[in-house]
Design goal:
alpha+beta; five-stranded mixed β-sheet; 33% helix; 60s Ribosomal Protein L30, Chain: A; 5 strands; 3 helices
Length: 165
Protein backbone atom coordinates (compact mmCIF):
# COMPACT_ATOMS: atom_id res chain seq x y z
CA UNK A 1 0.00 0.00 0.00
CA UNK A 2 1.38 3.42 -0.93
CA UNK A 3 1.96 6.32 1.47
CA UNK A 4 -0.74 8.31 -0.36
CA UNK A 5 -3.24 5.44 0.10
CA UNK A 6 -2.35 5.02 3.79
CA UNK A 7 -2.71 8.79 4.30
CA UNK A 8 -6.12 8.82 2.62
CA UNK A 9 -7.26 5.91 4.79
CA UNK A 10 -6.00 7.59 7.97
CA UNK A 11 -7.70 10.89 7.07
CA UNK A 12 -10.97 9.05 6.37
CA UNK A 13 -10.67 7.34 9.75
CA UNK A 14 -10.14 10.73 11.40
CA UNK A 15 -12.97 12.28 9.40
CA UNK A 16 -10.81 15.12 8.06
CA UNK A 17 -9.36 16.20 4.73
CA UNK A 18 -5.77 17.05 3.86
CA UNK A 19 -5.22 20.76 4.47
CA UNK A 20 -3.60 22.99 1.89
CA UNK A 21 0.10 23.56 2.50
CA UNK A 22 0.55 26.52 4.84
CA UNK A 23 2.35 29.60 3.56
CA UNK A 24 5.38 30.92 5.41
CA UNK A 25 4.34 33.48 7.99
CA UNK A 26 7.73 35.17 8.17
CA UNK A 27 11.16 35.27 6.61
CA UNK A 28 11.77 31.55 6.11
CA UNK A 29 11.03 28.71 3.70
CA UNK A 30 8.57 26.01 4.69
CA UNK A 31 10.92 23.32 3.33
CA UNK A 32 14.55 23.32 2.26
CA UNK A 33 16.22 20.47 0.38
CA UNK A 34 19.84 19.54 0.87
CA UNK A 35 20.83 16.46 -1.07
CA UNK A 36 18.42 13.72 -0.06
CA UNK A 37 17.21 15.54 3.05
CA UNK A 38 14.12 17.71 3.35
CA UNK A 39 14.16 20.08 6.33
CA UNK A 40 10.59 21.11 7.11
CA UNK A 41 10.13 24.28 9.18
CA UNK A 42 8.01 24.34 12.30
CA UNK A 43 4.30 23.85 11.60
CA UNK A 44 1.45 24.94 13.82
CA UNK A 45 -1.82 23.02 14.30
CA UNK A 46 -4.52 24.22 11.92
CA UNK A 47 -8.04 22.78 12.21
CA UNK A 48 -9.86 21.58 9.07
CA UNK A 49 -11.86 24.83 9.24
CA UNK A 50 -8.60 26.75 8.75
CA UNK A 51 -8.64 28.05 12.31
CA UNK A 52 -5.39 27.93 14.28
CA UNK A 53 -5.74 25.69 17.34
CA UNK A 54 -4.78 27.47 20.55
CA UNK A 55 -4.12 26.29 24.10
CA UNK A 56 -1.59 25.65 26.84
CA UNK A 57 -1.05 22.11 28.10
CA UNK A 58 -1.70 21.77 31.80
CA UNK A 59 -3.98 24.84 31.85
CA UNK A 60 -6.73 24.94 29.22
CA UNK A 61 -5.62 21.97 27.11
CA UNK A 62 -5.34 18.31 28.16
CA UNK A 63 -2.99 15.65 26.76
CA UNK A 64 -5.58 14.32 24.29
CA UNK A 65 -6.28 17.79 22.88
CA UNK A 66 -2.52 18.36 22.62
CA UNK A 67 -2.08 15.02 20.85
CA UNK A 68 -4.76 16.00 18.33
CA UNK A 69 -3.03 19.37 17.81
CA UNK A 70 0.27 17.57 17.15
CA UNK A 71 -1.50 15.38 14.60
CA UNK A 72 -2.84 18.50 12.84
CA UNK A 73 0.65 20.04 12.77
CA UNK A 74 1.98 16.81 11.22
CA UNK A 75 -0.76 16.99 8.57
CA UNK A 76 0.49 20.46 7.68
CA UNK A 77 4.01 19.02 7.35
CA UNK A 78 2.71 16.32 5.00
CA UNK A 79 0.84 18.93 2.95
CA UNK A 80 4.05 20.95 2.64
CA UNK A 81 6.05 17.87 1.59
CA UNK A 82 3.41 16.76 -0.91
CA UNK A 83 3.33 20.22 -2.52
CA UNK A 84 7.14 20.43 -2.71
CA UNK A 85 7.75 16.86 -3.89
CA UNK A 86 4.64 16.33 -6.04
CA UNK A 87 3.84 13.14 -4.11
CA UNK A 88 4.51 11.61 -0.72
CA UNK A 89 5.83 8.58 -2.62
CA UNK A 90 9.14 10.48 -2.84
CA UNK A 91 9.55 10.29 0.96
CA UNK A 92 11.92 7.48 1.89
CA UNK A 93 11.82 7.82 5.67
CA UNK A 94 11.33 10.08 8.65
CA UNK A 95 14.74 11.06 10.02
CA UNK A 96 13.79 13.29 12.95
CA UNK A 97 10.85 15.08 14.56
CA UNK A 98 11.27 17.95 16.98
CA UNK A 99 8.16 18.92 18.91
CA UNK A 100 7.68 21.90 21.18
CA UNK A 101 4.78 21.89 23.63
CA UNK A 102 3.33 25.09 25.08
CA UNK A 103 3.13 23.91 28.68
CA UNK A 104 2.40 25.09 32.19
CA UNK A 105 5.47 24.87 34.47
CA UNK A 106 4.50 21.55 36.08
CA UNK A 107 3.32 19.83 32.89
CA UNK A 108 5.60 16.87 32.13
CA UNK A 109 3.82 14.82 29.45
CA UNK A 110 5.37 16.42 26.35
CA UNK A 111 6.24 13.04 24.76
CA UNK A 112 2.60 11.88 25.03
CA UNK A 113 1.50 15.05 23.22
CA UNK A 114 4.04 14.73 20.39
CA UNK A 115 2.99 11.09 19.96
CA UNK A 116 0.08 12.50 17.92
CA UNK A 117 2.49 13.57 15.19
CA UNK A 118 4.68 10.47 15.52
CA UNK A 119 1.70 8.12 15.22
CA UNK A 120 0.36 9.87 12.12
CA UNK A 121 3.74 9.62 10.37
CA UNK A 122 4.07 5.95 11.39
CA UNK A 123 0.57 5.28 10.03
CA UNK A 124 1.40 6.97 6.71
CA UNK A 125 4.93 5.69 6.08
CA UNK A 126 4.81 2.46 8.09
CA UNK A 127 6.66 1.55 11.30
CA UNK A 128 9.99 0.96 9.54
CA UNK A 129 10.15 4.25 7.62
CA UNK A 130 7.69 6.45 9.52
CA UNK A 131 9.42 6.43 12.90
CA UNK A 132 12.62 8.40 13.32
CA UNK A 133 14.57 10.07 16.08
CA UNK A 134 12.52 12.50 18.14
CA UNK A 135 12.70 15.18 20.80
CA UNK A 136 9.78 16.66 22.72
CA UNK A 137 10.31 19.71 24.89
CA UNK A 138 8.20 22.08 26.91
CA UNK A 139 8.09 25.78 26.16
CA UNK A 140 6.67 28.66 28.19
CA UNK A 141 4.89 29.98 25.10
CA UNK A 142 4.64 29.35 21.37
CA UNK A 143 3.63 31.58 18.44
CA UNK A 144 -0.03 32.63 18.40
CA UNK A 145 -0.70 30.72 21.62
CA UNK A 146 -0.70 27.30 19.92
CA UNK A 147 -0.27 24.14 22.01
CA UNK A 148 2.42 22.63 19.76
CA UNK A 149 4.88 23.44 17.00
CA UNK A 150 6.55 20.61 15.10
CA UNK A 151 9.45 20.53 12.67
CA UNK A 152 10.85 17.50 10.85
CA UNK A 153 13.62 16.12 8.68
CA UNK A 154 12.93 13.48 6.01
CA UNK A 155 15.04 11.46 3.61
CA UNK A 156 13.50 11.97 0.17
CA UNK A 157 13.96 11.33 -3.49
CA UNK A 158 14.70 14.93 -4.46
CA UNK A 159 12.17 16.69 -6.67
CA UNK A 160 13.10 17.46 -10.29
CA UNK A 161 15.61 20.28 -10.47
CA UNK A 162 17.13 19.52 -7.05
CA UNK A 163 20.36 17.54 -7.30
CA UNK A 164 21.12 14.85 -4.73
CA UNK A 165 24.62 14.73 -3.26
Amino acid sequence: MSAETRLSARLAQLGIQMPPPPAAKGLYKTVVFHGRLAYVSGHLPVAPSGEIVRGKLGEDCDVEAGRRAAELAALGILATLRAALGSLERVRRVIRIFGMVNAAPRFDQQPAVINGASQLLADVFGPEHGVGARSAMGAGSLPLGVPVEIEAVFEVEPPPGIAAD
